[in-house]
Specification:
The protein is α+β, with helices and mostly antiparallel strands. It contains 20 helices and 23 strands. It is elongated, with a radius of gyration of 36 Å. The structure holds adenosine-5'-diphosphate and magnesium ion.
Length: 618
């Protein structure tokens, strides 16, 4: 029999300090103590599985590999038992009494020098076991190694300065952790809370976790399995589980990468977009795991905000498990994973759009708003996102959308820019003045019928090295290969000069400039934007958000000097200047309306009646 007896040892001094930090500042959520201990048990079981493959002679060879959790509500204890590799006396001392990791000293000296504790650094340390002391008055670890010559020991500590260690014969292989809960944590000795924590954090641990004999973790970590061996129903079931969903996913992306980072990921696009249906802003739906153990549910940082509609799992064993939520925020690894997965997902969508365009359009109609949000907010991926956008155009069939790449393919040889114009619908756009010149020159123009589209295009600025230009820009200069007939019976230049000067006087601050248009064919006048950055639609949205009466100043009015209405103004001005002024104001209002801008209806209607009155009494 062993001659050993109880020994009391001191924690290594670094350990003492670390314990203090861990207990008081690293973990803010006490729940995760159980996650850490289960993760250690799972590690020990994994090592055991490995051992039994190589080692012939192990203790308790036929014991099944599992984790058992029991509790005592009266005594306020929780006991976690595993049949893993266990620990010898030396291992108990080395693993639980010291910090084996190199660099821990440097870390602690650094920590002492700075006032602010760098949680980021702490996160790099494997200190999960100490999380037990967040909830424990005392922790007892009874362990027996798988090696035949070990006899079992008990390690006891209250986590302050010392621990004791003594022989404990008669143990089975593995480790039993008995936690005597402290006064603030007694609620953990309860079946419901234990089950809840296991389901939340440890659902995918690859060994059975039993509470009162019942296996709690019944869902498989599908993302770690080989794609080819997974059935569609399994994917759907898994999607329903992680996404808390009732529908079926419309897309799924399952991939694994080894370099530069080890990532296993399984992402789903749901069928429904609840945000679009008016249910308010969605929370992110992808959970972050490290080797099947949950690090963060609905992680905010693992994917960009605009991908919040995705459901699923990202698992990376490169991530430290013991990382606080705060440290996750600016963890370089998290940023890297975010970029890799986002890129991968965009590429996947691109391929889907090619192989099954119809299905892609279904997705686009439902979730396109998120892509547009990405295009305006995610600088890194904006080019890839731009390829996924779809719009109607003057050359698309009504109701059918094209990609910017298709537009570029069809561009005329001498055409250097991509043109677009916003309007509430196809009919309005096609009957408005902006299309005049495009129709005349047979140049394709994109219809951006969603108000956000103009913001998207102004953020993108270009596509495939071609500038995106709104057709309501003052300096629009489209290639003209057909010399149009617009100049045929236009007003003479001196008359044009006087007319535009007078019109500007009449309109005053309502416009910046009145000039002769080079682009109009059938319409008398058009509103254009001299600054070229804001489109009229963008301006309208800004206007709608501020309470002030609309004052669309800073715009130019271009007039068509071959149009009978404009030409008629020259004479009318001499005959009845007041009436001519009314017409000029009305021309501007009409042009503003066609630009989608808001005009004061009261004034306009009054003036309109005056004009009509004159017309009927002619
Ligand atoms: P980490 O898990 O990151 O190594 P921990 O503080 O969680 O850090 O655990 C420290 C060490 O204690 C582990 O590496 C392992 O060697 C040992 N250990 C903890 N729990 C067990 C267990 N249930 N069975 C066997 N060894 C364990
Ligand atoms: Mg651990």
């Amino acid at each position: 029999m062993s001659t050993e007896k109880l020994e009391t040892l001191e924690f290594q001094s670094e350990t003492k300090k670390l314990l203090d930090i861990v207990i008081h500042s690293l973990y803010t959520e006490k729940d995760i103590f159980l996650r850490e201990l289960i993760s250690n048990a799972a590690d020990a079981l994994e090592k055991m599985r490995h051992q039994s493959l190589s080692d012939e002679e192990v203790f308790d060879k036929d014991v099944s590999l599992d984790i058992n959790i029991s509790f005592d509500e009266k005594e306020h204890t929780i006991t976690i038992t595993d049949t893993g590799v266990g620990m010898s006396k030396e291992e108990l001392i080395a693993n639980l009494g010291t910090i084996a990791h190199s660099g821990s000293k440097t870390f602690l000296t650094e920590l002492n020098q700075t006032e602010q504790k760098d949680v980021n650094l702490i996160g790099q340390f494997g200190v999960g076991f100490y999380a037990a002391f967040m909830v424990a008055k005392q922790v007892r670890v009874q362990s027996r190694s798988y090696r035949l010559d070990d006899e079992g020991h008990e390690w006891i500590s209250d986590g302050t300065g010392t621990y004791s260690i003594a022989p404990n014969p008669g143990l089975h292989r593995g480790t039993k952790l008995i936690i005597e809960l402290n006064d603030n944590s007694k609620e953990y000795a309860n079946e419901e809370s234990i089950k809840r924590i296991i389901k939340q954090y440890s659902s995918f641990v690859p060994f059975p976790i039993k509470v009162a004999g019942e296996k709690i973790n019944t869902v498989q970590a599908l993302w770690t399995r080989n794609k080819n061996e997974i059935k569609d129903e399994e994917y759907t079931d898994f999607y329903k589980f992680v996404g808390n969903a009732f529908d079926e996913p419309q897309y799924k992306l399952h991939f694994a990468a080894d370099a530069p980072l080890s990532i296993k990921s399984l992402l789903f696009v749901p069928k429904e977009n609840f945000e679009r249906m008016g249910f308010g802003r969605m929370d992110p739906g992808v959970n972050l795991y490290c080797q099947k153990i949950l690090i963060e549910q609905h992680s905010e940082k693992i994917l960009p905000d605009w991908l919040r509609f995705l459901k699923g799992v990202i698992d990376s064993e490169d991530l430290p498990l013991n990382i606080s939520r705060q440290a996750l925020q600016d963890n370089a690894l998290v940023i890297k994973i975010n970029q890799v997965v986002t890129k991968k997902f965009l590429k996947y969508l691109h391929e889907e759009a090619k192989t099954d365009p119809e299905k892609y359009m279904q997705f686009y109609e439902t979730f396109g708003m998120f892509l547009k949000e990405g295009a305006t907010s995610d600088y890194t991926h904006r080019e890839a996102i731009a390829k996924l956008l779809r719009f109607e155009s003057s050359k698309s069939e009504p109701g059918k959308k094209i990609s910017l790449s298709e537009y570029v393919e069809r561009m005329k040889e001498e055409q250097k820019e991509i043109y677009y114009i916003n309007g509430p619908n196809r009919k309005t756009i096609e009957s408005g003045p902006y299309l005049d010149t495009f129709k005349a020159q047979d140049i394709e123009i994109i219809y951006t019928m969603d108000p956000i589209d103009d913001f998207v295009f102004s953020h993108l600025a270009e596509f495939d090295s071609k500038k995106l230009v709104s057709a309501d820009r003052a300096d629009l200069d489209i290639p003209k290969d057909k010399e149009s007939e617009e100049k045929k019976d236009a007003l003479e230049q001196p008359i044009v000069q006087t007319l535009t000067k007078w019109m500007k006087e009449v309109l005053g601050d309502r416009v910046k400039e009145v000039s002769e248009s080079k682009r109009l064919v059938g319409s008398p006048a058009i509103i254009v934007n001299p600054d070229g950055f804001m489109t009229s639609t963008m301006e309208r949205i800004m206007q709608a958000q501020s309470q002030d009466m609309p004052t669309p100043g800073g715009k130019n009015l271009e007039i068509n000097t071959s149009h009978p209405l404009i030409k008629g103004l020259v004479d009318m001005r001499l005959k009845d200047e007041d009436f001519a002024k009314n017409v000029v104001q009305q021309v501007l209002d009409n042009a503003l309306i066609q630009a989608g801008l808001i005009v004061d209806p009261r004034e306009m209607v009054e003036r309109n009646y005056k004009i009509l009155e004159k017309a009927v009494n002619k």
